[in-house]
Design goal:
Blueprint: H1 5-13, E1 24-26, H2 33-40, E2 48-52, H3 58-62, E3 67-70, E4 85-90, H4 100-104, H5 106-113, H6 121-132, E5 133-144, H7 154-163, E6 164-171, E7 186-193, H8 200-205, E8 207-211, E9 226-230, H9 248-255, E10 258-259, E11 264-268, H10 275-278, E12 279-281, H11 282-285, E13 291-295, E14 309-312, E15 334-338, E16 346-349, E17 354-355, E18 360-365, H12 372-379, H13 382-392, H14 400-405, E19 407-408, H15 413-432, H16 439-457
Helix pairs in contact: 1-2, 9-16, 12-15, 15-16
This protein binds S-adenosylmethionine.
Length: about 475
């Protein structure tokens, strides 16, 4: 995957002034898109060090007067190679954890980058680049934008916030690598290394430039939408999400509210390890005490869905092989939330149920002021769907930790009773006809929940 010349030129331009004595590294040079861009800007070839694990382009790079080193840039990092460069620039390989390279070098990479807990090579290249920079040096990479939001990169984001000023994040065109048959969602990230406790306040007040997704390379210089926000704002969301377009009142909602866990608490479920043997249709075993209603499917159904399966829980001893988490209030009345679903989907869970650890999570209201009906309305509202699936986790998986990290605001009596009434109506009707059309009630719930939260947090005062 070669970086198109206009993008390489733009990235190099974001490094700012490059003094004659500065040392510059491209740690994964490939055919040298960034070498060309640097030379075009008048950088002297002897300022540049080009590294690649692959010898292929040595000749063409050396012909330009640039030093080429064949080396694994990730594995060759030692404390002796820290603080060596004034600038680091490049397009690191993505290489997921399933790639041969990552699998083969798992142990050694873990030793160097383990604390970051990111398993993609590009995330390790970010850490690698920062370490190789001297304090005050600048790095500009084009990478996948997934590090900005995905939970598994939370430690990487913490590392960046702790060690750098984020100068700029530009969401590059989605079509950038189309002609090379690669479908990506790239981001250009420009950082200045700024390590040390004494610079903590500088990092917090530092202003970042965030450029919304540009449609083509022509837009880099004059993007349609960009914002300047203090770096401290990236500390506000759970998992330190690097957002690009969240309304300020939603940030306040996260910042100034309790977390859901304090009011509505969830638990992962059990697993039989042999579902063919221990799970049966509920209708076949309904009168048998040894079998309990069991919820084991996810999906987008909301409010109510009949429980159709049962799990064997006969003896005092759980049959061998069951994975059975401790201290879970199985059997209590509550809510079940799909673990795999395109949207946040919460349903009423009657007394006596158990649930499977893969596709469902049991939730219980632990706040005596809140009813199951209100909780169902809140979790199924479009606002909460946006918070959970649009902000905290954009994948199809819904994780317990994401739901616990949602904000929770105690509703006023009017909001609470209006939502409860609408939810009761939906649940009652869905019990009778599974296909009950509740779109009009849902619209009302969406409006009530949104207006209540907006009114509380959308003020004109500036965020600090
Ligand atoms: C996405 S290409 C980028 C090439 C070039 N920088 C550009 O933008 O056109 C990534 C390059 O990283 C190299 N590479 C992969 N793993 C590496 C590693 N561990 N150390 C150094 N280079 C590596 C590959 O050989 C490839 O040339």
């Amino acid at each position: 995957m070669t970086t198109p010349p206009n993008t390489a030129d733009y990235i190099v331009s974001r490094l700012g002034y490059i003094p004659r004595d500065a040392r510059i590294l491209d740690p994964c040079v490939g055919p040298g898109a960034f070498i060309k861009a640097l030379l075009n800007r008048g950088v002297d070839p002897d300022q540049i060090t080009a590294v690649d694990i692959n010898e292929e382009h040595r000749m063409s790079i050396e012909e330009q007067g640039v030093t080429f080193i064949t080396r694994d840039a990730l594995l060759s990092l030692t404390p002796y190679s820290y603080n060596e460069f004034d600038f680091v620039v490049g397009n690191p390989p993505y290489l997921s954890k399933a790639s041969e390279y990552i699998r083969k070098n798992k142990r050694s990479l873990q030793k160097i980058y383990g604390k970051i807990h990111s398993h993609e090579a590009y995330a390790m290249f970010i850490v690698n680049g920062i370490r190789r920079l001297r304090n005050g040096g600048k790095m500009a990479f084009i990478v996948s934008d997934s590090f900005m939001t995905v939970n598994t990169h939370a430690n990487l984001r913490r590392y960046i916030l702790k060690n750098c000023l984020i100068d700029e994040i530009t969401l590059a065109p989605k079509s950038l690598f189309d002609s090379q048959g690669v479908n990506t969602s790239p981001a250009i990230i420009v950082l200045t290394k700024c390590v040390g406790r004494e610079y903590e306040s500088s990092r917090m007040v530092h202003t970042m430039r965030i450029v919304e997704r540009v449609q083509s390379e022509d837009e880099y210089e004059h993007p349609r939408a960009s914002a300047s926000i203090p770096q401290s704002q990236y500390h506000l969301l759970p998992y330190k999400i690097f957002y690009t377009e969240i309304e300020p009142w939603i940030l306040k909602l996260f910042r100034d509210s309790d977390s859901m866990k304090e009011h509505i608490r969830g638990y992962v479920g059990m697993h039989t390890m042999d579902n063919d043997k221990y799970i049966r249709p509920l209708s076949e075993v309904e009168s048998d005490e040894d079998w309990k209603p069991y919820i084991k499917t996810g999906g987008a159904d909301q409010y109510y869905r009949p429980v159709t399966e049962a799990v064997y829980l006969g003896d005092d001893d759980i049959p061998d092989g069951y994975l059975f988490p401790r201290d879970v209030p199985f059997g209590d009345e509550g809510i079940v939330i799909s673990g795999i679903s395109s949207r946040l989907a919460a349903r009423y869970m009657p007394k006596g149920c158990y649930w499977d650890s893969n596709k469902a999570m049991g939730f219980f209201v632990v706040d005596e002021n809140i009813s199951i009906e209100y909780a169902l309305g809140l979790l199924n509202s479009s606002l909460y769907n946006h918070l959970a699936k649009g902000i905290l986790n954009r994948t199809n998986c819904v994780q317990l930790t994401d739901l616990h990290a949602l904000p929770f605001v105690n509703p006023d009596d009017d909001t609470k009773s209006r939502v409860e009434e609408l939810v009761k109506k939906i649940v009652t009707n869905k019990r009778e006809h599974e296909n009950f059309d509740y779109s009009s009630e849902q619209k009302q719930i969406d409006d009530i929940i949104l207006n209540f939260h907006k009114k509380r947090f959308k003020t004109t005062e500036k965020m600090v």
